[in-house]
Specification:
Blueprint: H1 10-25, H2 30-41, H3 45-56, H4 61-89, H5 107-183, E1 192-195, E2 201-204
Antiparallel strand pairs: 1-2
Helix pairs in contact: 1-2, 1-3, 1-4, 2-3
C-alpha cells in the first residue's frame, strides 16, 4: 500500500505537471496521470490529484491550454491519416461502382479516382495560396492606412499653420488701413511707420 507522509518537493511537482500535460496531449485522462505519478513517487493517486488541483495546476494554466490545443491537432491529424489510409487500403470503397462487382476495375476508373485525389490536394493548396494572398493584401492595406493617417496628420498641421499666418496678415492689414485713414487728415502731419520684428507697424517718433 502506497502511504507517504513527507512533503512535496519542487521536483515532485515538476514530475506531476509534466506527466499530466503529457497525458492531456495524448488524449489520456488525468486519473491515469495521477496513477503514473503515484507509482513513481510511491504516493496514492488521490494524493497526486489533490496536489495537482490544490497547488500545481494554477502554475500551468497556459501550458494546459497549449496541451489541449495540441491534443486537438493530433486528433485532426489522426483523423486525416485514417481517411487517407482507408483510401489506400480499400480504394474500392471510394471509387465509382462498376455495373457488376465481378467486373475488373478498368483503367479509366483508376485514372478518375487518381484525378479526384489530385483535385482534393490541389484544392487544399489553392485554399492555402488564397489565404496567404489575402493575408498579404490585408497587411498591405494596413500599411497604406498608416501612411494615409500620417499624411492626413501632416496636412492638418500645415493647414493650422497657414490659418495662423493668414490671421496675422489680416491683423497687419487692418492696422495699416487704420493708420492710412489717419494720414488722410491734413491737420495731422504725415507720420512715418516701420515694421517691427513681430510684423507689427509702429509709428516712428520725429
Amino acid at each position: 500500500m502506497k502511504v507517504r507522509q513527507d512533503a512535496w518537493s519542487h521536483e515532485d511537482d515538476v514530475l506531476l505537471a509534466e506527466t499530466v500535460l503529457k497525458h492531456i496531449k495524448e488524449g489520456s485522462t488525468q486519473l491515469r496521470a495521477f496513477d503514473e505519478v503515484g507509482d513513481e513517487l510511491h504516493r496514492t493517486s488521490a494524493a497526486c490529484g489533490f496536489r495537482w488541483n490544490a497547488v500545481v495546476r494554477q502554475k500551468y494554466i497556459s501550458d494546459i491550454r497549449e496541451a489541449k490545443k495540441e491534443r486537438k491537432e493530433r486528433k485532426r491529424a489522426a483523423s486525416y491519416l485514417s481517411s487517407v489510409t482507408k483510401r489506400a487500403v480499400q480504394p474500392e470503397l471510394y471509387m465509382p461502382q462498376q455495373q457488376s462487382v465481378n467486373q475488373p476495375i478498368s483503367l479509366s476508373v483508376v485514372i478518375e479516382y487518381l484525378k479526384t485525389l489530385n483535385t482534393e490536394s490541389n484544392g487544399t493548396q489553392a485554399l492555402k495560396r488564397e489565404n496567404e494572398k489575402l493575408l498579404k493584401e490585408n497587411l498591405d492595406l494596413l500599411t497604406k492606412n498608416k501612411e494615409l493617417e500620417a499624411e492626413l496628420s501632416k496636412l492638418q498641421n500645415d493647414h493650422h499653420v497657414i490659418e495662423e499666418d493668414y490671421q496675422s496678415l489680416i491683423q497687419i492689414m487692418n492696422r495699416a488701413r487704420r493708420m492710412a485713414i489717419l494720414q488722410d487728415d491734413d491737420s495731422i502731419a504725415p507720420a512715418t511707420f516701420k515694421m517691427d520684428k513681430n510684423g507689427n507697424l509702429e509709428k516712428v517718433a520725429k
